[in-house]
Design a protein that fits this description.
Layout: H1 2-18, H2 23-26, H3 52-73, H4 75-110, H5 128-132, H6 136-143, H7 145-149, H8 156-170, H9 177-194, H10 203-234
Helix pairs in contact: 3-4, 3-8, 4-8, 4-10, 8-9, 8-10, 9-10
Length: 235
């Protein structure tokens, strides 16, 4: 939690001093992007947007569900799970980038524009001067190009993994019904957002599903670990 908060504070100070968002260096870009670097796989999961609601939301839910995981499997496995769930989430969102890029570029080409001719600013978004020179149909198509040049960041992949782990191991614990309800609400909200009609894949929701898969893998590990531990105790 301190790392996430510390990175947010550092990014905020950097932005205040330089006027440029540090997130554009340490977030993770799709692997086809020239701005993707391997080190980003170790930084993006501690980075949040300048909007404080992003980190407040993630830290709040991590404080609810992550400590339970650490108590069950220990600090080392907690750190491993944090990275594994986030990395699986990145695999999923990276897939959405590739799929959306193909869809968006086809639409742009259909309007008579070569996607390679699109000019981007230092925020990796379509330049206003380029955008302003287009007709309305072209603007609609090119506007979507920002989706496939954008970055991803946040602890939500790990968060959803820890939430799944918590729910599986506490589903029948009536004393924790409030936390269970919050966990299911989190999962349901993600599913609801993912199912909203759209011609593009919701990459953020897909990343959350990836984190959930990571959480389930650790549930399976825990059950195996406990069964093995119990067998050794009996013997």
């Amino acid at each position: 939690m301190l790392i996430n908060i510390g990175v947010y504070v550092i990014c905020s100070i950097y932005n205040l001093i330089t006027g440029y968002e540090l997130q554009y260096y340490i977030s993770a870009y799709p692997t086809y992007s020239e701005h993707f670097h391997f080190y980003q796989l170790f930084t993006f999961l501690f980075v949040h947007s300048t909007n404080p609601t992003h980190i407040v939301f993630n830290v709040f839910y991590l404080l609810l569900f992550a400590p339970f995981f650490e108590r069950k499997l220990g600090f080392r496995k907690f750190i491993i799970a944090y990275f594994v769930c986030a990395w699986i989430g990145f695999i999923f969102i990276n897939y959405s980038y590739y799929q959306n890029k193909e869809t968006v570029e086809k639409r742009i080409i259909a309007t008579g524009i070569n996607p390679k001719a699109i000019r981007l600013n230092d925020r990796h978004e379509v330049e206003d001067s380029f955008y302003a020179s287009l007709n309305e149909k072209q603007k609609i198509a090119v506007e979507e190009y920002n989706y496939v040049t954008s970055k991803t960041h946040g602890a939500s992949g790990a968060l959803f993994g820890f939430t799944v782990f918590y729910l599986f191991l506490n589903i029948l614990n009536y004393r924790k019904m409030i936390f269970i309800a919050l966990g299911f609400h989190l999962l349901y909200s993600n599913l609801e957002a993912f199912l909203e009609p759209s011609s593009l894949i919701n990459g953020s929701c897909l990343a959350h599903f990836g984190g959930m898969i990571g959480g389930f893998l650790f549930v399976c590990y825990y059950w195996f670990y406990q069964k093995k531990k119990t067998k050794m105790a009996v013997e």
